[in-house]
Design a protein that fits this description.
Blueprint lengths: L20 E4 L4 E4 L2 E2 H7 L2 H10 L5 H12 L6 H8 L7 H15 L8 H25 L14 H10 L5 H14 L6 H10 L5 H12 L7 H12 L5 H11 L16 H17 L3 H17 L8 H11 L7 H22 L25
Antiparallel strand pairs: 1-2, 2-3
Helix pairs in contact: 1-8, 2-16, 3-6, 5-6, 5-10, 6-7, 6-16, 7-8, 8-13, 8-15, 8-16, 9-10, 9-16, 10-16, 11-15, 13-15
């Protein structure tokens, strides 16, 4: 029997062939279908980028308008799902609520016609359209309020921000939010995408695929890190406390949230864009003292750990952007999921094209030839 080398976390082991996105961690390059992330952030929209990822090419004007129209008019959720969400505990985390709600969609759309392009498109539209509605609905219902109905006259990002507080957002804020979704929509074979592809390989429905990925994204070592960045900045409190805090983390070998990446050995290109977006928000809507703390942290960490390739990742600045928008901290990761669902669906669709169920092996390190002991002798 062949002996395989054990790689904790499957680090560096290819799990699939994919043409969806590409990362060069040494040069700080991220591409979606060959297009640099900087160009998409400047020129594209979230729904256009989602179309690019899922169907493999930029849409024509007519194709994009048709896709936007479908998404716009599928934003509402079944009243039974709303009723179910009202029974969730108010203290529950929004990611748990989202995972349960996404899975529940599969009860209403249980047909698994995975070889039918119309079924695939309908599923893509329904999930991209309704996930933001469910996130916003739970945010209001956990406060004892009825959810805000989607507005068909608002674009994707403006509508989500509107559903949070029933106030039409400033155009700059809506555009910056849309760019944030573009930055978070896809990133090769990360943990949640791997989870999505493993689930998809069983040929279950796409709602179970997304629910599986949402559960994976919720962990603090993945999407949940952006919440912990804000908690860390609150704990530090001032610029003067930054260096002692980092030195203490290094002495105790504690993780510094928002720094370091499994792939990037330079500053995450998405973090560079997000930092610029944060500065745009501060210029128009007022400064945030946490930004001074964040900048000092970046300087000190680069001084201490730059030689090891430890730099800010996407989570470090995304929280500051959402904080300035007035979004509650525990909604940061659900917003990540709003974006990433399109990436997961792109991988779901790609997995179906040449599917083989995932069945990795293991290296057994347990005992052999153990004699059973009767319960009365234990």
């Amino acid at each position: 029997m062949m002996v395989c080398e054990y790689k904790p976390g499957l680090e560096g082991i290819p799990a699939a062939q994919s043409s969806i996105s590409y990362v060069d961690g040494q040069k700080g390059i991220l591409e979606y279908r060959g297009i640099r992330i900087e160009e998409l952030a400047e020129k594209s929209t979230f729904l256009e980028t989602a179309y690019l990822l899922i169907w493999g090419e930029l849409p024509s004007k007519e194709e994009l308008e048709a896709f936007e129209h479908e998404v716009r008019y599928h934003r509402r959720i079944k009243y039974r799902i709303r009723d179910m969400m009202k029974c969730f505990p108010e203290s529950g985390h929004p990611m748990d609520a989202l995972q349960a709600s996404a899975a529940a969609l599969g009860l209403f759309y249980s047909l698994r016609d995975l070889h039918n392009p119309a079924y695939i498109r309908d599923s893509v539209v329904r999930l991209i359209a309704t996930i933001p509605t469910m996130v916003a609905a739970f945010q209001l219902m956990r406060k004892g309020n009825d959810p805000v109905r989607p507005r068909d006259d608002l674009d994707y990002s403006s509508n989500f921000l509107y559903m949070l507080d029933e106030k039409e957002p400033d155009p700059l804020m809506a555009r910056i939010f849309d760019i944030c979704l573009i930055l978070q929509v896809e990133h090769t074979m990360n943990a949640s995408t791997f989870s999505a592809r493993v689930t998809a390989s069983t040929l279950t429905d796409p709602y179970a695929v997304v629910a599986s990925a949402v559960g994976t994204l919720g962990g603090p070592l993945h999407g949940g890190a952006n919440e912990e960045v804000i908690q860390m900045l609150e704990k530090i409190g001032s610029v003067e406390n930054v260096r002692p805090y980092i030195e203490h983390c290094l002495e105790t070998k504690s993780k510094i949230m928002g720094f370091g990446h499994r792939v990037y050995k330079v500053k995450d290109p998405r973090a560079i864009i997000l930092q610029g977006l944060a500065e745009q928000l501060f210029e128009k809507f007022g400064y945030d003292k946490f930004y001074d703390i964040a900048q000092e942290m970046e300087r000190v960490v680069e001084e201490k750990l730059g030689s090891k390739g430890i730099y800010p990742n996407i989570d470090f600045y995304s929280g500051l952007v959402y904080r300035k928008m007035g979004i509650p901290t525990d909604l940061f990761t659900p917003i990540f999921a709003i974006a990433r669902v399109a990436g997961w669906l792109a991988h779901w669709k790609e997995q179906l094209e040449e599917n083989r169920i995932f069945r990795p092996t293991q290296i057994y390190n347990g005992l052999h030839e153990v004699t059973y002991t009767p319960i009365e002798e234990r």
